[in-house]
Specification:
CATH topology of the largest domain: Heat Shock Protein 90
Number of helices: 13
Structural class: alpha+beta
Radius of gyration: 35 Å
Oligomer: single chain
Order of helices and strands: HHEEHHHEEEHHHHEHEEHHEEH
Number of domains: 3
Mean pLDDT: 88
Distance between the termini: 56 Å
Low-confidence stretches: 1-14, 372-379
Bound molecules: adenosine-5'-diphosphate, magnesium ion
Number of strands: 10
Helix content: 40-55%
CATH class of the largest domain: Alpha Beta
CATH architecture of the largest domain: 2-Layer Sandwich
CATH superfamily of the largest domain: Histidine kinase-like ATPase, C-terminal domain
């Protein structure tokens, strides 16, 4: 390599170009200029013949891999990479040779002289030069970017596993609390109500006492209803025993009654035997969607539709309320929208929230119902 590596590119001297270049030099000396630019480039560049043999290689490319220009020129382009990467490159190179493409891009690994691997982003283009065409290869070292991407992917996978486990733990806790409410607190409340009825019955003629007992009985009945609804919200036994459609329909009816809201539920062609994860995911999305519509939208009417598409189940929850900005709300304090997204992601589904100010909001979820979903979900939760 000619010139000092510390010198600024425009101060470096690259010596006399190889004969191949000298022969091409025009009267204005342009080739010298371009040859120097080629050598000064911080991006690795190689000129190859149509057989993939380097004709010359710039210093940046040599420095990336630790070989001298002479050593680089003695290699064939497929010698630079592990076989699987070289094979991909060679397939594209053949297409370039046959004229079916005139350029291509490929991220591939290169061997350094010390045996370590470098990730390079390769851009190849065909130069229809006379007397014979040549190929120009540009390589950028993207090793650090790839390492960062790999780390990001790993931490995303860990995060997804964690959120799967958190959701599962939350479901177990909900089931546990719902059972406690149903089996313990509700039973005790029933005993209390029964005792109060006995007192009321045996206090006939004591108007004042009866007068005081009436609101207490009404109060106990209200608490019993609220507990019943809470227990259902935490865990729907209908979902497990009757399946998704009856559970959703029942929930919409109860929700409408409790919130003085009209909820229109419709469903079509829903297959039996859905995975528990898919049913639970869609049920929780419905609960959060309805709860948000009641809490935030101000709408009097919500439409819920569950239908089957090509290999997918689709759920939409649409209100005609105030609307909001979903992307900024997603980063706000609430966890409802975020946990919808997580749950849908865990069953490999997609979620879209469209909202228009004063026209309302639509949550649209699509979940694949092919067999492999259950298996992949099991892995995420394992
Ligand atoms: N259907 C809706 N209509 C209007 N605003 C909504 C609706 N759904 C969500 N939002 C807005 O998005 C925010 C975040 O919702 P969410 O994550 O469920 O949290 P939370 O309900 O606890 O506030 C809400 O506070 C509300 O401002
Ligand atoms: Mg919410």
């Amino acid at each position: 390599m000619n010139g000092s590596d510390d010198a600024l590119p425009n101060q470096r001297s690259y010596g006399t170009p190889p004969a191949f270049v000298r022969e091409e030099t025009g009267e204005h000396g342009f080739t010298d200029l371009f040859y120097n630019a080629f050598r000064a480039s911080p991006i690795g560049i190689a000129l190859e013949d149509m057989d993939g043999q380097p004709i010359f290689v710039n210093p940046a490319f040599c420095a990336m891999l630790g070989f001298s220009e002479e050593e680089m020129r003695q290699k064939h382009c497929v010698d630079f990479s592990p076989p699987e990467d070289a094979a991909k490159d060679w397939t594209l190179f053949q297409q370039l040779r046959s004229g079916s493409i005139d350029h291509y891009h490929l991220d591939k690994r290169y061997f350094r002289k010390d045996g370590s691997l470098m990730w390079g982003r390769l851009s190849i283009s065909l130069l229809n030069h006379r007397p014979s065409p040549v190929v120009i290869a540009m390589v950028e070292d993207i090793t650090e970017i790839r390492l960062a991407q790999d780390e990001l992917q790993q931490s995303q996978a860990t995060l997804q596993k964690l959120s799967g486990r958190l959701i599962e733990a939350q479901e177990q806790e909900r089931r546990h609390i719902a059972r406690e409410i149903h089996d313990d607190i509700s039973q005790k409340l029933a005993l209390l109500a029964n005792g109060l009825y006995q007192v009321a019955r045996s206090s006939e003629g004591f108007d004042e006492l009866q007068h005081q007992l009436a609101p207490l009985l009404a109060h106990v009945s209200d608490i019993a209803q609220a507990l019943h609804a809470l227990s259902h919200r935490l865990h729907s036994s209908k979902l497990e025993t009757l399946g998704l459609v009856p559970a959703m329909r029942g929930f919409c009816r109860e929700f409408a009654a409790q919130h003085s809201l009209e909820v229109d539920f419709s469903s079509a062609e829903i297959p039996d035997g859905l995975s528990r994860y898919i049913s639970l995911c869609l049920f929780r999305v419905l609960q959060e969607g309805l709860s948000n519509a009641a809490k935030h939208s101000g709408a009097a009417h919500v439409e819920v539709r569950l239908e089957r598409g090509d290999g997918v189940l689709r759920l939409s929850v649409r209100d005609s309320g105030s609307g909001f900005n979903p992307s900024s709300a997603m980063h706000g304090g609430g966890i409802g929208l975020m946990s919808m997204k997580e749950r849908v992601g865990l069953v490999k589904g997609t979620i879209a929230i469209t909202s228009t100010p004063d026209s309302g909001t639509e949550i649209h979820v699509s979940v694949p119902i092919a067999d492999h979903v259950e298996a992949s979900q099991m892995n995420a939760l394992a």
